[in-house]
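Exercise 7b. Backbone tokens:
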């Protein structure tokens, strides 16, 4: 079969609009509520509380700003150490540094590709003074939340749950974004639903939600003039952006269903080649399947070397590697991506500690980064297109 490059690029995960987004944006425009106050904002805060099952939601300009507010609320001060997921997007970590905190990265486990509770427990033995843990649910798969919550309770630490990638995923029937004292979700353009940008802070704590409302609108005090007692931020969401979010929220479940179908189709398509999909623990968790990823069996990896900005491999019969697969996909106008490079391997964190379990010697995050990759998971991709992508990948192992 002669496969030609796709005329229209197939993306990892791009925004999928319906129609209602425009209705609510237009409503904001026509009623002149185009700034950071308005009905769309009020509505989406209510809708998300209902969907996720939390008491308070504050709409903000991004998921990162929600995480920043969470870090401030948990009292992180200059020089404080904070435990943090290692295989994640940099936005999980950046807010720790905004407040002068020092992230300590906790290694990953193979069953969900999230923070390893055993490595976390070890970290508390090494650094008993740590009081805050920032936990991400990678690619829409919940972490081992019961175990993580237990360890944090045992050591009296506050959890900040970064559910930017996992909105709509559940753990034992409970939505992610509720396991931390403070939680963040994101409406960035590549997420499961989007506002073009935007994010939300979620909590059950009334005072914290009030603080975030105040801080995110420049910390204005109740006075006739601009009166300030605290540092402020310009972090509130626009009512126009909120209009997009309002149009998208009713489609969250449909998007999840489509993402799951994509994941299952890849899984079936790869059953005869030496790879597996990004894992989750069945019967305990239901991911939102935001990104489908694969990991190549150890003995099916051809030689691959990566520097800070380049990758090379040596082709071997019957074997492949993420670099080869990504090159093939690119040749056919398909977007794939390496696994998020672990934070402990990032040059900017070379001085930060990285805590692994003491009973295994392998660096799990580095291993998943080495052997794994993110597959195109766009819900506008057709089944025929996905069939071709599967064939391209299967052929890499010939
Ligand atoms: C996208 C993302 C964020 C940041 O969200 P923004 O809305 O883009 O600021 C934070 N953490 C993770 C894990 C993400 O994937």
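Sequence design result:
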């Amino acid at each position: 079969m002669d496969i030609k490059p796709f005329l229209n690029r197939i993306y990892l995960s791009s925004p999928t609009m319906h129609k209602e987004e425009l209705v609510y944006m237009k409503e904001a425009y026509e009623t002149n509520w185009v700034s950071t106050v308005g009905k769309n904002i009020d509505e989406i805060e209510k809708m998300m509380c209902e969907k996720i099952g939390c008491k308070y939601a504050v709409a903000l300009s991004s998921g990162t700003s929600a995480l920043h507010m969470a870090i401030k609320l948990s009292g992180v001060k200059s020089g404080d150490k904070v435990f943090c997921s290692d295989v994640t997007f940099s936005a999980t970590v950046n807010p720790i540094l905004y407040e002068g905190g020092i992230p300590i990265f906790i290694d990953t486990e193979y069953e969900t590709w999230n923070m390893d509770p055993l490595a976390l427990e070890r970290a508390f033995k090494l650094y008993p003074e740590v009081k805050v843990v920032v936990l991400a649910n990678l690619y829409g798969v919940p972490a081992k939340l019961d175990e993580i919550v237990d360890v944090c309770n045992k050591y009296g630490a506050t959890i900040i749950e970064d559910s930017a990638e996992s909105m709509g995923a559940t753990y034992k029937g409970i939505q992610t974004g509720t396991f931390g004292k403070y939680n963040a979700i994101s409406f960035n353009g590549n997420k499961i639903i989007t506002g073009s940008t935007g994010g939300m802070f979620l909590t059950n704590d009334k005072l914290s939600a009030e603080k975030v409302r105040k801080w995110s609108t420049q910390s204005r005090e109740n006075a006739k003039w601009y009166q300030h007692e605290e540092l402020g931020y310009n972090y509130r969401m626009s009512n126009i952006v909120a209009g997009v979010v309002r149009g998208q929220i009713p489609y969250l479940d449909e998007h999840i269903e489509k993402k799951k179908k994509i994941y299952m189709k890849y899984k079936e398509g790869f059953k005869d080649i030496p790879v597996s999909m990004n894992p989750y623990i069945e019967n305990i968790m239901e991911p939102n399947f935001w990104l489908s990823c694969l990991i190549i069996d150890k003995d099916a990896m051809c030689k691959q070397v990566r520097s800070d900005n380049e990758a090379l491999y040596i082709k071997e019969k019957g074997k492949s590697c993420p670099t080869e697969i990504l090159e093939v996909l690119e040749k056919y106008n398909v977007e794939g991506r390496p696994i998020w490079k672990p934070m402990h391997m990032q040059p900017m964190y070379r001085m930060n500690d990285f805590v692994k379990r003491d009973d295994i010697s392998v660096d799990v995050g580095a291993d998943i980064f080495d052997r794994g990759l993110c597959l195109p998971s766009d819900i506008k991709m057709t089944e025929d297109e996905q069939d071709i992508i599967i064939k391209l990948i299967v052929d890499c192992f010939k």
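Instructor comment: The CA atoms of residues 160 and 353 lie 20 Å apart. Residues 62-64, 88-89, 91-92, 136, 162, 164-165, 186, 188, 199 surround pyridoxal-5'-phosphate (CB under 6 Å).
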